[in-house]
From TrEMBL:
Listed EC numbers: 6.3.4.21
Post-translational modifications: Transiently phosphorylated on a His residue during the reaction cycle. Phosphorylation strongly increases the affinity for substrates and increases the rate of nicotinate D-ribonucleotide production. Dephosphorylation regenerates the low-affinity form of the enzyme, leading to product release.
Statement: the UniProt record of this protein carries the keyword Protein biosynthesis: no
Protein name in UniProt: Nicotinate phosphoribosyltransferase
Catalyzed reaction equations: 5-phospho-alpha-D-ribose 1-diphosphate + nicotinate + ATP + H2O = nicotinate beta-D-ribonucleotide + ADP + phosphate + diphosphate
One Pfam assignment: NAPRTase
Ranges where the Nicotinate/nicotinamide phosphoribosyltransferase domain occurs: 152-273
One Gene Ontology biological process: NAD+ biosynthetic process via the salvage pathway
Any one Gene Ontology cellular component term annotated for this protein: cytosol
Domain of life of the organism encoding this protein: Bacteria
Upper classification of the organism: Bacteria, Bacillati, Bacillota, Clostridia, Peptostreptococcales
GO molecular function, one term: nicotinamide phosphoribosyltransferase activity
Gene3D superfamilies: Aldolase class I, nicotinate phosphoribosyltransferase
Length: 310
């Protein structure tokens, strides 16, 4: 993790300066981090981000560039800035384990440290743990609704920036997701990655069948086809079946199909009938497109034949 020492609110630093000037900065204090309301308006919260808190603490220091920036604000004395140059966290931090289920008003993290150290890290700890716990909790709720069917995280393109995409992917896995589409997150955190093709792949070729066959030519042992670019039941699934038969004759086992739009419950059941009739009853039907715990619960109630979600 990069140096995030200045990832704080300005008032933390002005308070530090005040503590220093009044010579109370070394007083030992204890801060508890807790929340008053569960994430997602639910009944519990999954704590996530503890590992990043440790990385943040290990990298805490004011660089020369940091100190020059603070000096140019004309808010701090040279004596105080000189003091910050030697900053090192010396306190103790007690935290629950990553992935722990917690409830309102229970301490997630307890910091015991000199006042100036405990005060400085407050903002960063909140932003690290609050965001990741929110995502982990949402993922947990979605996975619970899926009733054991694998759920994958595909949120990077809609995340609030790169860092949110990276740490959101990690948090989703902590919350129960089986993997992510985020390649960098997979590399950084050694978590499974998954992905096949988009509608743009299908549209690039003269027709859908050609697009499916081209993908199968490249990835015959990982052939999962997106069947809703044009018409799921009249072209998508029938064309997928043709390709599945081709690769099966060559000794490869098709993975499945993906539905990304429309009435997912109806389409999955009708697609399942076509696949079963063609002899492909054991391949997966994956669904995507803004699936949350409520949508998944509804799909289950409607008897959708979906066994993977994104």
């Amino acid at each position: 993790m990069r140096n995030l020492t200045l990832l704080t609110d300005l008032y933390q630093l002005t308070m530090l300066n005040g503590y220093f000037e009044k010579n109370i900065h070394e007083d030992i204090v204890v801060f508890d981090m807790f929340f008053r309301k569960n994430a997602c308006d639910g009944g519990y919260t999954i704590v996530c981000g503890i590992d990043q808190v440790v990385e943040y603490i290990d990298n805490l220091h004011f660089s020369d560039e940091d100190l020059e920036y603070l000096k140019n604000l004309n808010l701090f004395s040279d004596k105080f800035l000189k003091f910050l140059k030697e900053f090192k966290f010396t306190g103790d931090i007690y935290a629950v384990e990553e992935g722990t289920i917690m409830f309102p008003n229970e301490p997630l993290i307890t910091v015991k440290a000199p006042l100036y150290q405990a005060q400085l890290i407050e903002t960063a700890l909140l932003t690290i743990v609050n965001f990741q716990s929110l995502i982990a909790t949402k993922a947990s709720r979605v996975c619970f609704a899926a009733q054991g069917d694998p759920v994958f995280e595909f949120g990077l393109r809609r995340a609030q920036g790169p860092d949110a995409g990276i740490y959101g992917a990690r948090a989703a896995v902590v919350g129960g997701c089986a993997g992510t589409a985020n390649v960098l997150a997979g590399k950084m955190f050694d978590i499974p990655i998954i992905g096949t093709q988009a509608h743009s792949w299908v549209q690039k070729f003269d027709n859908e069948l050609e697009a499916f066959q081209a993908y199968a030519d490249v990835y015959p042992d990982k052939c999962l086809l997106l069947v809703d670019t044009y018409d799921v039941l009249n072209s998508g699934v029938p064309n997928a079946i043709k390709v599945f038969k081709n690769i099966s004759e060559k000794g490869y086992k098709p993975m499945g199909i993906r539905l990304d739009s429309g009435d997912l419950a109806y389409l999955s059941k009708e697609a399942k009938k076509q696949l079963d009739n063609a002899g492909f009853s054991d391949i997966s039907i994956t669904a995507s497109n803004d699936l949350d715990e409520y949508t998944i619960t509804s799909l289950k109630a409607e008897g959708a034949t979906i066994n993977h979600g994104e």
